[in-house]
Amino acid sequence: MLVVALVLCVGAVVLLAVSRARRARAERLLRGAETLYEAALRSEDDLRAALESTDVNQRDSEGDSALHMAYYFGGARAVARLKALGADEYVRNNEGLTPEEMRDVAATEVLLERTTACMTLSHWIDEARGRVLYDELRACPPRIYNPALVRLFMRERHRRRLVYLAVKVGIPDSKERLALILGIHFAGKEGRDIANTFLNSGSHELADAAGQWALRNGYDINFRVSGTAARWGEF
Question: Is there a domain that residue 89 lies in?
Answer without folding.
Answer: yes
